[in-house]
Specification:
The protein has 13 helices and 22 strands. By secondary structure, the protein is an alpha+beta fold.
Amino acid sequence: MTNLLLTVSPGRLGLTIKVYKNDPQNGAVITEIDPACTFKNQLEIGDRIVTIDGLKVTKIEDLSLNKDRLRKFGIVKKKNQVAAADGREVSRENVTTATSTSATAVKAATEQLQQQQAMKQQYLIRTQQEQRAAKQQQNEKIEIPKHPMMGLSRRVNGNYNIVNQHENLKNIPKTQVISRLQTFIESLSQMKCISNRSRLHISCTCMQFLKNKPRLQLAMCHAILEYSDMTHVQKKHHVVERMRYAKMVSRKAEGDSNRIVEQLYGLPLSYEYLENNNDMECDDAAAASSAANADAQVDDDSSHPSSYQEQQQQQQLSEAFSHRICASAFFRLHSIGPHAEKIHKQYIGGDLSIITHQNAGKKRKRKTTDAMNDLRSSLQALYDEYINSSECKRKGDDFTLPVNISKRNYYEEWCRKRGWEPSKTDTANGQYAKVVDFELLDGYYRTEEEESLAEAEGRYVVGVAKRVVAFTNFMYCWNNEFPNMKTQGRVGKGMFIGERYGSGKWDRNR
């Protein structure tokens, strides 16, 4: 018996339908409804299409009947199906009870009922256990946002790069980095931090002190950014000194539980930012006060909002300098992971000097640094020459060098200026040999002794060849420190844009 007679226009229905075999209930079951379906508000998942234009639906092909014209669908609603099924079950049980006289059939039905009840009980127990475990895990789990300074490096122009597995940002201004840091600190102040680095879920509310205190948050941002600009040795001294102080004032005895939370680290605050910010606020307050005095006479007994605000700020600063945070918050603010923390702990009671590697301090190592510095200076001169040139094509902040300048040509010219002719192992693919296999140009010598000997023998002498870097280091320096300076690249596979030289051949050394 249908509950709804629905008139359907020609075209796509927008329904996903399934017909079950050996189903006592006739019709096709609606399993999914497309949002674009024109009559979706009159149906729901589980309804059955039992007739089309008065004909019963027994298979999928019946749904294609008269699909090119208006049709009338007989629908049985899901709620009525459940009620009818319950009625059939009740009637079937009554008939079975009335007609079943065999003891074997009664016993089998009883056993089956017991098994169903046992399975239902087990399902309820398992569901309760899963819900309890999920609730406990939700209470213990603390979502900590990712540190915005992971992979941060400072550029020559004062901006920053952030390169890690989650993002790749180049040439970010300092204000944007400060904004990212403030958002990170604000998010930490809204939650409890994990106070134990051994993955024990212990909550600590030390960071909630910074909630709704933007001035202190900005002071912390500048302090953390100053820490990121330190050298490796300076960072190690900065962290280890604070770890030594924390260990000295700790009251935690040997063998105490790891669940004891101690707040021993001071907030990282930039004194320079606080001082400059305070001067600006004082100047603003003085200007406002003088303007008010010029407009009207103020009584001696009246309140002074600027003085009150200054007192509040002084009290807030005093509380900030005396406030202490836990080790977890300190290491998280400075983006120090468990492995780096373990290394720092090795220096707490020992020497702070960096381990000297075998190649540290050698002349060859210093020459490599000199070569990189010379390469940076050369690329910077090229950048300054063409940054505002009308010969370059521009797209946003990027500019494209003229066609006669390519990275490979520039690298080879730079090597020749330093006395070397780059040799290639694969000319077709442009693969260079190792730097030690480069050939000396005429008049250049490897050492000063060879140069002196050549002068004594009357040979042509230009000077001692200077050290060069590999092409991979050249490309890394160009792409990371001068990402806006582009060259005209490949047109297609194996094809290059180049400039015709006097020989009439295309330059393929890109």
